[in-house]
């Protein structure tokens, strides 16, 4: 799941934006001042950063400068009421990838986030995962076997990544459903079984790869 660091000191706005992003399958860490955000950035290494300019302790411009000193590639978007031309120019000079002026729609924010993640080389390389003789591309949502490739849904891709990165461990069914379907009231354990069956079918060209059903508990990915 994509991790977003969101820095905003206005509590009501932050709650709306964070909830909307999480409803769109992003994991959000919210901080209310620049100093806390900088500490969070260094420990969590988010995939993208959203920054307000006017904040206590450390303003957004200073935070952006410090983040760029640590990481030159992580996508960074300013979300701010500072709309003067000089502020916009300063934001880009500090290394921002985008500058969104308040008020904005959540739809526009998500489109801009998706565009930056799609074109970010750091993100692209980190999303490729070798699974036996397969290559999972989490950016393009494809699973490739030599010259053959199948298109996955977002949830299929993320579920396969989760199971593989926790291979030889039992992943509880409840953990999977909470991570990827907590907002879907119609999703059931039977629905999860269907997703698992699809993944097994996709992986059937490499006999070493198995997703084992641990009855009543969850699933375990094995490679042997």
Automatic annotation (TrEMBL):
One of its GO terms (cellular component) is protein-DNA complex. The keyword Phosphoprotein applies. The keyword Acetylation does not apply. Keywords: DNA-binding, Phosphoprotein, Transcription, Transcription regulation, Two-component regulatory system. InterPro entries: CheY-like_superfamily (IPR011006), OmpR/PhoB-type_DNA-bd (IPR001867), Sig_transdc_resp-reg_receiver (IPR001789), WalR-like (IPR039420), WH-like_DNA-bd_sf (IPR036388). Residues 126-223 form the OmpR/PhoB-type domain. Residues 3-117 form the Response regulatory domain. One of its GO terms (biological process) is regulation of DNA-templated transcription. Residues 126-223 bind DNA. It holds the Pfam family Response_reg. The modification 4-aspartylphosphate is found at residue 52. GO terms for molecular function: phosphorelay response regulator activity; transcription cis-regulatory region binding. This is Response regulator transcription factor. It comes from Rhinopithecimicrobium faecis.
